[in-house]
């Protein structure tokens, strides 16, 4: 594990002729959930490893979480969360919206785990061993898992045979929810795709847009904050040139391992960059613990520390300290933390290197980050050397229609304007039934979280609209029976 992880760091901090390649990850909470907030039964369903061939007959058990408490049978709806790149229990815990509305709809609640994550390992411990075993980690296979699971649930649960299914998902899970409705319209009557950057692909969205959004978030957090961060990269690199400078940096940031080389300093840069990216994603209005325990509006909190300092790097260190040590429990800060360190991250790294080729870049002009262009050639060659696979940057467009998706129907694309990933989202309605909902004060899929007294009006209204649309889908379904 550690060995592979060490190699993979080059993917996020890649140095090729001075070029860094960015591979921002969606927020994937550290799982599994320690104390589940909601009650459910854990079940397993046997799936073929390969849905699309008749010659490979291996199977595996897909985990799903199910709650039948609100379901009154006789065709009541099924709410299905299309699991993304992590342990499903964490997504279950952080998708309170489904739990909040399930009683009103008398819905059966199901959270389906994505293959190759959590406990749903097609080849057990060998799942990540080599490309041969990993090759079945694709969105298409995952969607087919969800479709078969639905068929199984409907066939086995009394009263569910005619139940309409509504899919929910956030982030990559939102992309899956949207694609599920496109590819399996007979399995699901509609989908809520929250913060789903379905257009963050080659040629559809400028690669730097999400970083411009982060920069605006920090500027709003405290004017001048973005300038401090902008200045910090060169200062960090300069100071990191000498052993004395690296020692000073290590103590200023209370690092767990001292910086020994300029490569370590580059790792640290990349760690800070992903820290700010993550912070922008979880800029929620109330204290939450999705990635790290944080206060409400954490960007504002971090920025006020940054701008209060007379020394740029000390301000940055104070900001990083708030992000990683809000609870006061961190003995030191670990710059390897954002590097690929767990199966969830490994899985996403593989997906990024196969079909999820989501271009990402910074230029230091339209954003507060160092110059890191997107270079398709570099990306492909790094993926080949890391995973022994050749990415297909245009495959997702071919497979899921790119921007030409008006033949689809009944999908809600919700996006928070504070969320970096809204850059690749569907921000305007494409038809009467492909509805875009924007949430002015929302970070990454805020609408999927449970309601909270500190919720801004914009998310309250978004959720009301979502409930109303889901109600209409259900009415249409029942009146067509
Ligand atoms: C620097 O070297 C020390 C001693 O070998 C090691 O313990 C530490 O992990 C190194 N730091 C980094 C960031 O790799
Ligand atoms: C984290 O906060 C606690 C409480 O303020 C403090 O004692 C500790 O030194 C901090 N950790 C680091 C790495 O500075
Ligand atoms: C991408 O990187 C390759 C190899 O380092 C280089 O030859 C090429 O010019 C770069 N392309 C762009 C568009 O920068
Ligand atoms: C999408 O449709 C537009 C207009 O019809 C067309 O120009 C474009 O090539 C299509 N793109 C794809 C990926 O099919």
TrEMBL record:
N-terminal signal peptide: 1-16
Keyword Repeat: no
Compartmental location: Lysosome
GO CC annotation terms, alphabetical: lysosome
Entry's EC annotation: 3.4.16.2
Catalytic activity: Cleavage of a -Pro-|-Xaa bond to release a C-terminal amino acid
One GO-annotated biological process of the protein: proteolysis
Keywords: Carboxypeptidase, Disulfide bond, Glycoprotein, Hydrolase, Lysosome, Protease, Signal, Zymogen
Main location: other
Matching Gene3D superfamilies: alpha/beta hydrolase (3.40.50.1820), Serine carboxypeptidase S28, SKS domain (1.20.120.980)
Molecular-function annotations in GO: dipeptidyl-peptidase activity; serine-type carboxypeptidase activity
Family matches, as Pfam families: Peptidase_S28 (PF05577)
Top-level lineage group: Eukaryota
Keyword Transmembrane helix in record: no
Main function: Cleaves C-terminal amino acids linked to proline in peptides such as angiotensin II, III and des-Arg9-bradykinin. This cleavage occurs at acidic pH, but enzymatic activity is retained with some substrates at neutral pH.
Family stated for the protein in its record: Belongs to the peptidase S28 family.
Subunit organization: Homodimer.
Stated name of the protein: Lysosomal Pro-X carboxypeptidase
Organism of derivation: Branchiostoma floridae
Record gene name: LOC118415383
């Amino acid at each position: 594990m550690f060995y592979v992880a060490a190699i993979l760091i080059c993917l996020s901090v890649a140095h090729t002729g001075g070029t860094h390649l960015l591979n921002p990850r969606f927020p994937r909470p550290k799982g599994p959930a320690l104390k589940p907030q909601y009650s459910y039964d854990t079940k397993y369903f046997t799936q073929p490893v390969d849905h699309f061939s008749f010659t490979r007959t291996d199977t595996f058990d897909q985990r799903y979480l199910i709650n039948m408490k609100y379901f009154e049978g006789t065709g009541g709806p099924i709410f299905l969360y299309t699991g993304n790149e992590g342990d499903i229990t964490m997504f279950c815990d952080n998708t309170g919206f489904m739990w909040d509305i399930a009683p009103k709809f008398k819905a059966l609640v199901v959270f389906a785990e994505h293959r190759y994550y959590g406990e749903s390992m097609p080849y057990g411990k060998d799942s990540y061993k080599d490309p041969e075993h990993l090759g079945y980690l694709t969105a298409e296979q995952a969607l087919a898992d969800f479709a078969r699971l639905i068929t199984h649930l409907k066939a086995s649960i009394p009263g569910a045979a005619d139940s309409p299914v509504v899919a929910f998902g956030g982030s990559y899970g939102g992309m899956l929810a949207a694609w599920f409705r496109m590819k399996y319209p007979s399995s699901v009557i509609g989908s809520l795709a929250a913060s789903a950057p379905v257009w963050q692909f080659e040629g559809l969205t400028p690669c730097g847009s999400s970083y411009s959004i982060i920069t605006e978030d920090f500027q709003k957090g405290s004017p001048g904050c973005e300038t401090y961060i902008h200045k910090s990269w060169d200062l960090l690199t300069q100071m990191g040139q000498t052993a004395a400078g690296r020692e000073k940096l290590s103590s200023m940031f209370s690092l767990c391992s001292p910086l020994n080389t300029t490569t370590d300093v580059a790792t640290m840069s990349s760690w800070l960059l992903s820290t700010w990216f993550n912070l922008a994603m979880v800029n929620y209005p109330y204290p939450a613990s999705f990635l790290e325990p944080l206060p409400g509006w954490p960007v504002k909190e971090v920025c006020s520390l940054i701008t209060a300092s007379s020394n740029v790097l000390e301000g940055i260190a104070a900001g990083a300290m708030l992000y990683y040590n809000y609870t006061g429990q961190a003995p030191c800060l670990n710059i390897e933390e954002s590097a690929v360190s767990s199966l969830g991250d490994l899985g996403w790294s593989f997906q990024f290197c196969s079909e999820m080729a989501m271009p990402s870049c910074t230029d230091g002009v339209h954003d507060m980050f160092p110059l890191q262009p997107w270079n398709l050639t570099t990306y492909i060659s790094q993926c080949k050397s890391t995973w022994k696979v050749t990415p297909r940057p245009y495959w997702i467009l071919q497979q899921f229609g790119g921007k030409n998706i008006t033949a689809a129907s009944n999908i809600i694309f919700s996006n928070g304007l504070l969320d970096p990933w809204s850059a690749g989202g569907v921000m305007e309605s494409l038809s009467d039934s492909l509805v875009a909902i924007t949430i002015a004060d929302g970070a990454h899929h805020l609408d999927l979280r449970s309601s909270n007294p500190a919720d801004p009006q914009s998310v309250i209204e978004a959720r009301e609209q979502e409930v109303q649309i889901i109600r209409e889908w259900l009415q249409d379904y029942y009146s067509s029976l």
